[in-house]
């Protein structure tokens, strides 16, 4: 009886690992397939973050595009407005250049550049510049626009991989110097630190209370 029970338990244990192994293999194959085509950007969050741009200002940026996958690809770029406000979006000018070669210069809504290609392990750097036209008047004070540049790589058998980088431009209040900060602003960490300290204090207080209660119970039990 004990021998049969041992054999049955061993068989059930082996069977329980079969689905796990199958799922793990499937996930591994899926992960491997996803890396066949891999386009990467640097920076990969915000390329433009200009909070106080004035007429006549411009903000140049360098964007690196890399092929980190396992096959050559061609890629195309789209630019899309991500806010309901379109007045400033329609007026801003963007220029894209590859070294001395200008790929596009015009307003945001009509953005288009020719498809480009990258071999495995290659990367290229494009220079993008946003211009705030100097003819824009007071009606654009306080306006803000957000947009996104979407890079889509296309490989063999209709495989695609997309990545995007954002842009945020505003006129602010129209006073002071250009707000071009060259990237994202630093995060405010003071609130996070205070929250962590508060949580730590509460946990220490709760832990101390539990220890005191347990100590009192031990004393009471000892006396009784």
UniProtKB/TrEMBL annotation:
Please give the name of this protein. Answer: M73 family metallopeptidase
Bias (Gly residues): 173-182
Q: Where is the composition biased (Low complexity)?
A: 161-172
Segments carrying the region annotation (Disordered) are 159-184
Top-level taxon? Bacteria
Q: Which residues form the signal peptide?
A: 1-25
Which NCBIfam families does the record associate with it? LPXTG_anchor
Enumerate the UniProt keywords alphabetically.
Answer: Membrane, Signal, Transmembrane, Transmembrane helix
Chain segments annotated as transmembrane: 193-213
